[in-house]
Structure formats: C-alpha cells, structure tokens
Write a structure and sequence with these properties.
- Strands 1, 2, 6, 7, 8, 9, 18 and 19 form an 8-stranded mixed sheet that branches. Strands 10, 12, 13, 14, 15 and 16 form a 6-stranded mixed sheet that branches. Strands 3-5-4 form a 3-stranded antiparallel sheet.
- The chain has 2 domains: about 300 residues, 3-Layer(bba) Sandwich (FAD/NAD(P)-binding domain), CATH 3.50.50.60; about 170 residues, Succinate dehydrogenase/fumarate reductase flavoprotein, catalytic domain (Flavocytochrome C3, Chain A, domain 1, Alpha-Beta Complex), CATH 3.90.700.10.
- Helix 1 links the parallel strand 1 and strand 2.
- The longest helix is centred in the first third of the chain and has 20 residues.
- The protein contains 16 helices and 19 strands.
- By secondary structure, the protein is α/β, with parallel strands linked by helices.
- Helix content is about 35%, strand content about 20%.
- Helix 1 runs parallel beside helix 5, helix 1 runs parallel beside helix 16 and helix 3 crosses helix 4.
- Its cofactor is FAD.
- Pfam families: FAD_binding_2.
- InterPro entries: FAD-dep_OxRdtase_2_FAD-bd, FAD-oxidoreductase_2, FAD/NAD-bd_sf, Succ_DH/fumarate_Rdtase_cat_sf.
Length: about 475
C-alpha cells in the first residue's frame, strides 16, 4: 500500500498546533495533526487569553501600546537573552492575529492587564477551551485538516529529498504506521512534565515545581528534534504563576483558582520557608506571579501562616487586595467552609494546631514562634522593617487558635526553552543553520522570547506566541511551495 503523503505533519494538538492547522488549511496545504492524548487542546484548554499591542479592541478602548517601548521592555526584562528580531515580528503581527482568531470562531471577552502590567491581555470567552473547540478545531476540520488522537510521533527520519518519514505509533495497541511529510511542525508543549529534563535546566528547584497543565508536556518534540541534530537551548524558563497548593493526592488543576488557593497566593499574607522565617515582601510578589514563583522556588519548603481571625475576616468581611474582575467581591464567601472540607478530606497541604508552637512542631519550622512574635510586633508598629511590606497588608497572626499553615509549591504552566529557532520558526542545528523542513512552535520553540523568567508584566505573551508561531511557521512553509 502506498504511503500517505502530507505537505505538513503537526505534532501536538494544543493551541499552537491548532493555530498552525488552521493556517495550513487557509493555505491549502494537505495537513495531518497528531495528538497523543485521547482529547485535543492540551494545556491550551486552560489559557486565559493572548497578547496584542494594537488590536482592534485596544484601538476601540484607547489602550494601544507603544510598540518600540514594549520591545525595549521585553529585551531589558530578559537581560537581552530574548531575540529582538523575533519579538519585533511577533509584536507587529499580534493585533492581526487577534482578528484572525475572531474570524475563525474564537471569541474575545475583553482586554485586561495583570497586576501592574500592560493592558495587552485579550481574554477568551470560555478560556482557550472554547477558542479551540468552538473555533480553531471545527474550522480546521471544515477545511480538510486530518486530525488523529491516541497517536504518538515516535520517530522522524529525513530522506535524501529532504522529506520526512514520520512514524506514527498507536498508544493503545502499539502498532506503527509511517507517513511522508514535506514539513514537520513540532507543537508538543515543552517538557514541564519530564522531571529528568527539568533537573537539567538551570535556576530550578524541580521538586518544588507543580505542573498545572494537561500532564502531557514530556518533551516529545524536543527529543525528536535533538535526534535530528537540533541545538539544546535551555534557558531555565518555567512559566511559574507563584504558589500552588502542594498535595500530590489531588490533580493540581483542581486546586488552582479555588478560594483557598487565592487566599494564600493572591493575598499578601505571611509566607515562611522551611525554618519558619519570611523571605520576601509578599505584596510585591503577588502583583507579579513570575516574581512570586522565583522567590518561592529558592526555598526548600513554603507555608502560608494565618490565624482563625484572618480566616473569618476573609470569609465574612473583606481581604486587603482586590482581585476584581477575577473575584467578583472583596471576600471569599466559601473560604471557611472550604477549609473545613479540606480538613475533613485530609488534604496534605493543610495543617492546623491550637497554638503557633504546636503548628511549628507539626510542620518542622523551628523559628516560626519567634518570627510570628516579631511579625506581630511589626504589624502593631505599622512598619515591616524586614521587607517593607505596606502596613495595610501586615495582618497580625494572633488571637485565639486554631492557627493554620498551608504548604505551597510553585505552580507552573509550561516551559519556555529547549530548541533554538529562527524568525521563521525553523529549528536550528548546533551551527545555527536551519534543519530543512523542521519547525518548532509554541512552547517547543519559545526560548527566543525569554531569559530565565516569563514576562508577566506584558500578559498573554506565551499564548499569543502560540498563535503567532503557528501561523508564522506555516506561512514560511507556504512561501516555499
């Protein structure tokens, strides 16, 4: 039987993969989109929104961003490790990509900022899940893109004519099929779920990083490219969003965004490390969750310490840092009930004791009693002499017990390194030359954007890059036809 032949085989059906698939359909390229999971969307299902600097929505709301200043901001933030040429191309096309998404069924709810960051975040209605499953996926299917699931790409071999033999392995019965592709686009989502690769990156404490994603980002695309001579281009960037409740008995995505999570990670309460002492101005950290994640990841263990009074106030009265529009009112009406339920369920992240001394023994933080006393004195004096947190956030941990400790790891969505690409998203070898017909998009090819930290000061850039890079790679392929 003759082998099937495609113009493009895309590895991974997440946000970047579907952007590439839809663009390929627009360019009349015979396309196969391969997904190893049972369902499509991957971590893209959880994406809130995408970046743009000059979208029609921003123009309408008078929220356009100076593109030259934005470029300088991103290059400075990365200490000039980011690729300035790629950033310029990305910024110039981001607004057009928002319009392109809307024309293909992805609905944008609003333009927002994150903390003190720029107003660049174009939030999806129904998050990335709806943008994919009500927009890009049905659009790609209607235009003839072939989509297969429960199938891994396990090998790529380049032929003398520069085409690829692509080995497709069925994950249920382990049978193989080989198809031929003129071009291969890697969109497998990075390697956040591959502990071995995480341990090889700088700047990380991988035991403290808690992936909050689809669980399928195991570096498949990177390994395929490395076997073809691609450069390993680790920058050590994990897209960390700060604290995450640490409990391996519960899927991490179920804990993110809950009232308990927000009360200890969005509110600048007292965070302590493994010896029971603070390590950061919590209010400075929560306005930039990349900084929050970096500061937490330097510790061996992290706990949020609070009293029953704080718990009751957050439930019945108010909390100090407004979270609108993400939390509709300045309190967590279900918080006390949620804590009680977590205690009944025996959640590992929750610790409770009648006194601070007993709590310190339970969580093995020997300096906690002395530090809580010191913290309460600073709160009474209205001055944080240790880290200069504003007085309004210095909530004393006092009163009658019980007292609580919530253990935190560092939540992360994805990685932002692994392969080096050029401005056409072609994968580069160890000499900086493109490997013919091989492209990396989304997390597989995002090292060009970063130093060691995600720039949350310009929100939506990673998801927006998924759209840009997917379209960018396919446009380069179409121009070769």
């Amino acid at each position: 039987m003759a082998e099937k032949k495609y113009d493009v085989v895309i590895v991974g059906a997440g946000l970047a993969g579907f952007a590439a698939a839809a663009e390929a359909a627009d360019n009349n390229l015979k396309t196969l989109l391969v997904e190893k999971g049972k369902t499509t969307g991957g971590t893209g299902n959880y994406v809130e929104g995408v970046f743009a600097a000059d979208s029609e929505l921003q123009k309408k709301d008078h929220a356009e961003i100076d593109q030259e200043e934005l470029l300088k901001e991103e290059l400075t933030y990365s200490h000039y490790k980011a690729d300035g040429k790629m950033w310029q191309k990305y910024i110039a096309n981001a607004g057009k990509n928002v319009s392109w998404l809307e024309k293909r069924g992805a609905e944008i709810a609003m333009v927002a900022s994150l903390g003190s960051g720029a107003r660049t975040w174009h939030l999806f209605k129904g998050k990335g899940h709806d943008a994919i499953h009500s927009g890009l996926e049905p659009y790609a299917k209607s235009k003839g893109v072939e989509i297969i699931t429960l199938t891994r790409v396990t090998d790529l071999k380049q032929n003398e004519d520069q085409t690829y033999n692509v080995t497709l392995t069925n994950v249920e019965d382990d049978t193989d099929e080989i198809v031929v592709a003129n071009n291969v686009v890697l969109a497998s989502g990075g390697y956040l779920n591959n502990l071995e690769l995480m341990e090889h990156t700088p700047h990380q404490n991988p035991d403290n990083v808690i992936p909050v994603n689809s669980g399928k980002s195991t570096g498949d695309g990177l390994c395929l490219a490395w076997n073809l001579g691609a450069k390993q281009f680790f920058t050590g960037m994990s897209m960390m969003f700060g604290g995450q409740l640490k409990d391996d008995s519960v899927p991490s995505f179920k804990l993110w965004g809950t009232a308990i999570w927000s009360s200890v990670c969005d509110q600048p309460q007292m965070w302590v490390n493994e010896i029971g002492e603070r390590f950061v101005d919590e209010s400075a950290a929560v306005v930039n969750w990349a900084n929050e994640g970096n500061s937490m990841n330097r510790q061996e263990r992290v706990f949020c310490i609070f009293s029953q009074k704080i718990l009751d106030d957050f439930t019945d009265k108010s909390y100090p840092r407004s979270m609108k529009p993400f939390v509709p009112e300045d309190r967590y009406p279900s918080l006390r009930e949620d804590i009680e339920q977590a205690e009944k369920d025996g959640r590992k992240y929750l610790h409770k004791a009648a006194t601070i001394e007993e709590l310190a023994k339970e969580i093995d933080t020997p300096n906690l009693p002395a530090y809580v006393k010191h913290y309460n004195e600073m709160a009474a004096n209205g001055e944080d002499t240790d880290f200069h947190k504003p007085a309004k956030y210095m909530l004393p941990v006092d009163g009658d017990g019980p007292f609580y400790a919530i253990e935190l790891g560092v939540g992360a969505y994805t990685t932002g390194d692994g392969l080096r690409v050029n401005t056409n998203n072609e994968v580069l070898d160890t000499k900086g030359r493109p490997i013919s017909g091989l492209y990396a998009i989304g997390s597989d090819g995002s090292a060009v954007l970063y130093g060691d930290t995600y720039g949350v000061n310009v929100p939506g850039t990673h998801a927006g890059y998924c759209i840009f890079s997917g379209r960018n790679a396919i446009k380069a392929i179409a121009n070769k036809q």
